[in-house]
Amino acid sequence: MDSTFPTRAIILNRRDWREADRLVSVYTPDYGRLSLVARGARKAGSKLAAHLEPISLSRLLVVKGKGFDYVGAALSEEIFLGIKQDLNKLYFAGEALRNFSILVQEGEADLNLFSWLEKWLLSLEAAGEKGSLDKDEGRFRLALFLWRLFKLLGHEPRLDVCTACKAAIKPGNNYFDCNRGGLLCPDCYSSNLKISAPDSMVPISDNCIKLLRLASGNTWQNLKFSPKILKEWENLNFQIISWLY
């Protein structure tokens, strides 16, 4: 890696650092997640501060340092104003970036990860009538974001066959095993209670399985769901994150 390099970066979060600086976490298409020092970003009149706001896409010039690398220059490319002007959108964008920071390790460069994050933020910004986002739609979009993220990180859940016996999944009394990363049929669930951690297995309804199969495809914009199924999906995502990390 050169001592100085340009990159596009989605600003994930930032925090105060030392007396006048900020430590900024970003995700880049070529270098993955980076922690960068923005020198003087807390000072009044800083030229960097406005271009390093969380939930923004900026072009950065990164300078290699002995300890931390730092931001030599920054220019905003997309500030996602439509997200920042709507409290619901802002909340769900913040939750997406928070979970992204938990799930994605530093230096894990993946163009598909960057593209999905950028695409999702642009889609969230454009969502809703007259720019306002319905809360349930926001919950659905966040659940979808996490589900696709699992796949991109190599944790794509198996939804077609039982992960233990490999038999096709049939309707009724199935479970999702976070440890195995997929569905368990009722018979294998009973058997695995003796050899697997019980808290890794979550009951899952037939309708939720159908929703997840559709969400794994490319037709998610037209998916229909009930509040009950959405809650079940959210709980499953939470369990997967808790088990993996």
DSSP strand count: 8
Shape: elongated
Q: Kindly report the CATH topology of the domain at 4-78.
A: OB fold (Dihydrolipoamide Acetyltransferase, E2P)
Tell me the number of helical segments per DSSP (H or I, 4 or more residues long). Answer: 7
Computed Rg: 21 Å
Low-confidence stretches: none
Query: Distance between the terminal alpha carbons, to the nearest Å?
Result: 30 Å
The CATH class of the domain at 4-78: Mainly Beta
Tell me the CATH architecture of the domain at 4-78.
Answer: Beta Barrel
How much β-strand is present in the residues? 15-25%
SSE order in H/E notation? Answer: EEEEEHHHHEEHEHH
Q: Structural class per helix/strand content?
A: alpha+beta
CATH-defined superfamily of the domain at 4-78: Nucleic acid-binding proteins
Mean pLDDT: 90
Classify the helix fraction into a percent range.
25-40%
How is the largest sheet built, in terms of strand order? 1-2-3-5-4
Largest sheet: 5 strands, mixed, barrel
Show the helix and strand layout:
Blueprint (H helix, E strand, L loop, with lengths): L3 E14 L3 E8 L3 E7 L17 E8 L5 E10 L2 H4 L2 H17 L7 H16 L8 H18 L21 E4 L4 E3 L1 H7 L8 E4 L1 H10 L11 H18 L1
Parallel strand pairs: 3-5
Antiparallel strand pairs: 1-2, 1-4, 2-3, 4-5, 6-7, 6-8
Helix pairs in contact: 2-4, 3-4, 4-7, 6-7
Describe the protein in words.
The structure is a single chain. The protein is elongated and about 65 Å long. The protein starts with a strand and ends with a helix. The model has no long low-confidence stretch (mean pLDDT 90). Among the domains are: 4-78, OB fold (Dihydrolipoamide Acetyltransferase, E2P) (Beta Barrel); 174-244, no CATH class. A hairpin with a 3-residue loop joins strand 1 and strand 2 (21-28). The strands form two sheets. A five-stranded mixed beta barrel has the order 1-2-3-5-4. Strands 7-6-8 form a three-stranded antiparallel sheet. Helices cover 37% and strands 24% of the residues. The chain is an alpha+beta fold.
